[in-house]
Amino acid sequence: MTSRRDLIKAGAMAARAGAVPSSVTLVDPVREQHKLAAGTLWAGGACTHTSFQNLEIRIMRARLDARACTRVFALCLGLGLLVLPGAAQQSSPSPDDKYPENPTKQENAPSRSARLGRLPIEWIIGPYIPVQERLEPLSNKQRGQIYMRQTFLTAGSYVARAFSAGIDQARGEPHDWGGGFAGYGRRYAARYGAFVVQNSILSGGNALLGYEPRYDFCRCNGFRRRTLHAISRNFVAYNRTERELRPQVPMYAGALAAGVLYNTWLPGKQNIWSGGAYNMLSQAGIGSGYNFVSEFALDILHAFGLKKNVRRAP
After folding, report:
1. Which of 73, 212, 236, 303 has the fewest CB neighbours in a 10 Å radius?
2. How far apart are CA 166 and CA 144, in angstroms?
């Protein structure tokens, strides 16, 4: 059997003798066979070398998207853990005579930290202020506890982000993320990451300005008055006096920043500022709806025969 070296040597000798024109280039048959195998995987050229490269590019992009979502979520978690320390201002409770509409303080009442941990439906709607509880300024530690529960330990926050991701999935936005569980997972991670950013900015701003971060149940009766109260709390909040209402500037600043960051994560060219404005409008609508559900949460549970021993007011 003739080896490759013998073939090359014979070709060179033939070229010198003039048997092979000098313009002809000798081809290595083994290399050509490898090129043929790489260029065509099936008979008839069903898969070309170009399509094979496109497949590799798509696989690489999918891996990069998955890694990016993981890093974004880790970044948002780190931001949430770092934004509060040193931001809140320590405040002391005000005298009872400043709150004539509130019940008198009991001598053996448990600490606020203990009460926060025993609220009946906190795991559904997040920390809130019951009708019978005094309104008091919060300490740094209490604000940190509220932030962690609102962001990571409330079922409502996960359900809301799942709903938003489902709408994105139905619309096919962004198109490059595809469908199925993989596409939904990317959309959910992006939505939840944006929520962590928004709530971190909101909590830090509330701490700096002394705003009340919890939802306070309406100390009133009637569907209309309670509904108006729920909607208003999406636009105003108590300041550190716990009596004066101020515009919810931190909430909508956080919504703008989260919308801008969310659109920078999306594939393709996006208008990040219009995305931020759209997120602010979403906060106005979805936030009001979330407050409405929170205000009537006990009524809804009672209608289904749940938590009947828990009352909104004594």
Report:
1. 303
2. 30
Residue partners of 224: CB distance under 8 A and separation at least 6? none
CB-CB contact of 188 with 122 (8 Å) = no
**3-state secondary structure (DSSP) of residue 285:** helix
**Confidence (pTM):** 0.64
Residue-level pLDDT at 134: 86
Structural contact between residues 278 and 258, judged by C-beta atoms closer than 8 angstroms = no
Report how far residue 258's alpha carbon sits from residue 116's, in angstroms, rounded to the nearest whole number. 28
Question: In whole angstroms, how large is the CA radius of gyration of the chain?
Answer: 32
Q: Which two tokens stand for residue 198?
A: 């928004």
DSSP result, 125-169: H-SEE-TTSPP-PPPHHHHHHHHHHHHHS-HHHHHHHHHHHHHHH
How far is it, in rounded angstroms, from Cα 228 to Cα 188? 31
pLDDT of residue 197: 96
Give the CA count within 13 Å in the CB-facing half-sphere of 103: 12
Structural domain spans, the chain: 51-92+124-303
Return the number of other C-beta atoms located less than 10 Å from residue 213's C-beta. 23
Distance CA 179, CA 189 (A): 14
The lowest-confidence range among 18-27, 44-53, 281-290 is 18-27
Mean of the pLDDT values across residues 45-74?
Answer: 56
- Are residues 88 and 140 in contact, defined by beta-carbon separation less than 8 angstroms? yes
Which amino acid is located at 162 in the chain?
A
**What pLDDT is recorded for position 270?**
85
Distance, in Å, from the CA atom of 159 to the CA atom of 166, rounded to the nearest integer, reads 10
Query: In terms of DSSP H, where are the helices of the chain?
Result: 4-17, 29-39, 49-83, 112-117, 122-125, 140-152, 155-171, 180-209, 223-232, 249-265, 272-295, 297-303
